[in-house]
Amino acid sequence: MNRIRAGKSAIAALVLLPACVFAIGLCVERWGVFSALKEEVQTRDVPGWAFRSGKRARILVQLGLIGAFAFDPSEVDPALNWRGAPRLRQPPNPLARRPPRPLFFSLDHVRPEDLPSTTLVDRREIEKGVPLLSIAVRKADLYDPSTGLLAKSNLLKRGQAWERPAFASYMNGGKTVFGSGVGLRLHGGITRLYSPNKSFRMYLRPQYGLHDVARDIFFEEGGRPLRTVVLGNDVRLDRSDRRYQFVGSIAFEIADRIGCLVPRTKPVRFFLNGEFQGVYVLSEHLDKHLLMDRYGHDRFVFARCKPAQGKDLVKYGDPREYQQFATWARSDRARTMEEVSRRVDIENLTLWCLSILFCGTTDADQGAALLDQSRADSRWFWINWDMDLSFLSHLLKRVKHPWEFDAFAHVTSSRSGSVRGSILRGLLRTSEPYRAYFRDRFVEVMNHKFTPDFLRDLLDRYRALGATFGVEQPDVFDDIQQFLERRPAVLRQQMKAYAGAGDAFQIAISGPSGVRFEVDGFPVGASYSGWYFEGMDVRVRPVFLDGGAFSHWRVNGVDQSAGVGGTLIRRVTSDATLEAVFVQPPAASTR
Predict the structure, then answer these.
(1) Four-way CATH pick for 504-584: 3.40.50, 3.40.1710, 1.10.3300, 2.60.40
(2) What is the DSSP letter of 213?
(3) What would the mean pLDDT of 445-465 be, rounded to a whole number?
(4) CB-facing half-sphere around the CA of 425: CA atoms within 13 A
């Protein structure tokens, strides 16, 4: 009996001992000190000599705490003479579910100017002073049939398993202002298959070199440091294979003008392994780091909207919250504006819609849907994303000219299952309060935001950028300008069918050169012209910058008295001219 008991005890010990060891190991690994140590050995601050040889290095590598990037410059350019950082090869792990990703750690004492991504670029390109991004990556990591990012069978592969180590250098003003190891992935959807020049994503991680980079190194505005940067191929072709560039950036600036949430962008000349790929655009990536930068926290339900892929993807937060919201939004029933506004930021949704309508974006329902979980009264809102198919509606054979594209039908279509489209379709069809709100916001945006001066200055600036960066077909900016000039009249006609608007009439306001006006609450100059739908009110009052004595208004040549402070409220029923008459005109002003 004792022998049986002893045998049972021995068996129990054999079973329990590994379990105890595993539990202890798990606790140690999750212990804050161990996590900090693991993070520390993966940073570039650890000297390379500590891991170059010996038992310590082998143990750390086998534990997967460190790795090495065995970059051989001769794989890119046999003539390149680069000292390089010490290398340590990571042995294969037969128990791993997938091959280990090689990582380099030993960038200490290597200047950005000495990285292969810097030295591979012709010095004359750097001396031009134009923003330039160079990436150096092993050819096998690009073209190997099994593991290469650009191998035909791998173009649609995603996730960190398809991230490859690389070097990246950013030059501006003739100097190298950033250089580090990065993780490199492909970026984009179907463009991975047909675009000859691919888009990429750069990840900054401790195991590659830098943990992050100051945001204002790449973009004009500062903020929290960047950890991910999108490097997008900016070329879009029309039916005649004309090359349009900066389309997405121009559309983002138009959307930003009216208060939409958009990522920052920056054009660069892009070199891959020393070869010029074209003019690309750097942009922020839709991830937690962008949320931290904009809102100071990342407690959001975050759903990436891309119906072309069949469904929206919840990246962060509880998927059930978004699924419940999407089911509610897509149910085909009438809702009041008040009911929708309890769950949706109506202003954000409406401004997104107006930006899509004006730009004629044909791949509209992309971006991110977010719910701020740090607020009890939070409502769903969206970030604009991927507006690079704007102004090019002549890709579609349904219209003769791009500005004629019916973006209303596209945005509110039921075929895509779009959450935003479903909400807008219901409100525009059944809610008169929302239709009135939508008409008011449309008139406000068209008259006071998308002004001729703003659009002209925007296009002039991008023409100058095109000349600076060497855009191949600069005349396409003339096409975009023609689109922007003709688009408002088309939208006013479409507003009749989709938002119950009446006929549109032009209201012109004028006065002496020294006066300024406030129209609909917006400051304007000494002359103004805007379009209003029948039955709307235009409210105008003179603002005296340099003296002057206001007398009355002259409406269509007929004198008319004004209200307090010279305010005139005019109900729109036809075209009208409003002239401010002064007893003593204000002095001319340059302000």
Answers:
(1) 2.60.40
(2) B
(3) 96
(4) 20
Structure tokens, 582: 């002064």
How much is the mean pLDDT over the chain? 82
The four Cα atoms 49, 52, 55, 58 give a dihedral, to 10 degrees, of 130
Distance (Å, whole) CA 279 – CA 473: 12
User: Whose structure tokens read 């892009």?
Assistant: 270
Contact indicator for 564, 570 with CB cutoff of 8 Å: no
The residues with which 230 forms a beta bridge, in sequence order, are 201, 283
Question: How far is it, in rounded angstroms, from Cα 282 to Cα 459?
Answer: 19
Instruction: Name the residue type at position 27.
Output: C
Tell me 268's DSSP state. Answer: E
- 3-state class (DSSP) for residue 330: helix
Instruction: Supply the DSSP string of 479-524, one letter for each residue.
Output: HHHHHHHHHHHHHHHHHHHHH----EEEEEEE--TTEEEEETTEEE
Interatomic CA distance for residues 340 and 529, integer angstroms: 34
This model's pTM is above 0.85: no
Q: How far is CA 187 from the centre of its chain?
A: 13
**Most confident residue range from 63-67, 173-177, 387-391, 437-441:** 437-441
Question: Is 571 exposed, middle or buried (CB count within 10 Å of its CB: 0-12, 13-18, 19+)?
Answer: exposed
Can you name the residues that pair with 183 across neighbouring β-strands? 165, 203
The Cα–Cα gap between 336 and 341 comes to 9
- Using alpha carbons, select from 129, 234, 120 the residue that is nearest to residue 167: 120
- Report yes or no: 213 and 180 within 8 Å, Cβ to Cβ: yes
Q: Which residues 6+ apart lie within 8 Å of 374 measured at CB?
A: 297, 299
pLDDT digits (tens, 9 = 90+) for 275-328: 999 999 999 988 888 888 888 898 999 988 775 555 678 888 889 999 999 999
Query: Region 115-143: what's the mean pLDDT?
Result: 91
Which among 517, 489, 514, 483 has a CA at the least distance from the CA of 503? 489
Mind listing the pLDDT tens digit for each residue in 442-452?
999 999 999 99
